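Sharing a chain and its predicted structure for anyone who wants a worked example. Both blocks are below, sequence first, tokens second.
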Amino acid sequence: MARLRRFVAAPFLAGALVLAVASPAVAHDGWHHDGDHGHGHNRAGADHVVFVQNDDPTGNTVVAYDRGDDGTLTYATSYATGGSGGVLTGSVVDHLASQSSLVYDAEHALLLAVNAGSNTVSVFSVDGDQLQLRELVPSYGQFPVSIAVHDDVAYVLNARGGGTVQGYRITDGVLVPLDGSLRALGLDPNATPEFTTTPGQIAFTPDGSQLVVTTKGNGSAILVFRVRHHGYLASTPTTNAEPGTVPFALTFDSRGRLAVAEAGTNSVATYDLAGDGTIQLRDRESTGQMATCWITGIDGNLYLSNAGSGTVSQVSDGHHGSLAFVGNTTTDAGTVDSAATPDGSYLYVQAGKAGIVDGFRVNGDGSLSAIGSVIVPNGAGGEGIVAV
């Protein structure tokens, strides 16, 4: 059973990285492109691969790394998304200032990537470390930064213009827009600095009955939409104001509680999420670091990326909803997005200042041991990472 769960957080000084690669293996013209799943592999889906996107404004790219039995990464190849990356005003090591900008849908063997600079989403079929660009679809908003998938439904979060979410049906390996699914978040489109006031992440609850959006410093709230028949959302969300916390990213912990990385307090907080969309705080634990942003959960531990400190904090998700700080592990500068392998054995952390991915072995007590790093060409400032 998979041990991993993901989250994210970032303070008023967010930071994130991604990878970049300069040899596009896929060309694209027009809105839609179908390709076969071939490439000589005998199975569909990914296995022992880490994918990273570079968010390059001159041409977004996804890079595939093969993962060895010891967790070390070896460059395999790179793929153009057919779109362009984007840079939020004020961002340095986290150009999207978000989590889940790159998502692997195991059920359909698809990799989904946002193209923030061209307001599109790329859909790749996955066969081992091989990707085939199937489709390039509009995000129906400005500056897409995050994607959520549950069963046959996907939603994309657009960060600019006050924020919107748009739904799609996953059918035959492509995204089919759900007519009438666009919902406005009603945020202030002129709030500054932009990279800390645009929404940070979109995610389904584990049962798919609700869709959660973090707003960061723009209202500092957690928005919860009820998911109705056929993947449509309630017309308006339940708004949970969390003044001063700057909710940046989220996941669901090992006990199914909502876990939020708070950039404003440099903390992680856990909440009970009710059926009506309201939340109740269970516990909050400070990292004691700067710019606490992205977070990944493995078993009973939460790992928070601290962009301003160049560290990853380990926080224990204890019994009865309590949290306990365990310790920090040093990474390369500008610690941002992270991803764990499905079995929870390895954690990969993007360091956005220079465009590096640091690899760590997860020990039995949850502590991290460095196993090496890879430099991502043109990867500085990018973010979006998936480990499978």
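Comments welcome. The two ends are 13 Å apart (CA to CA).
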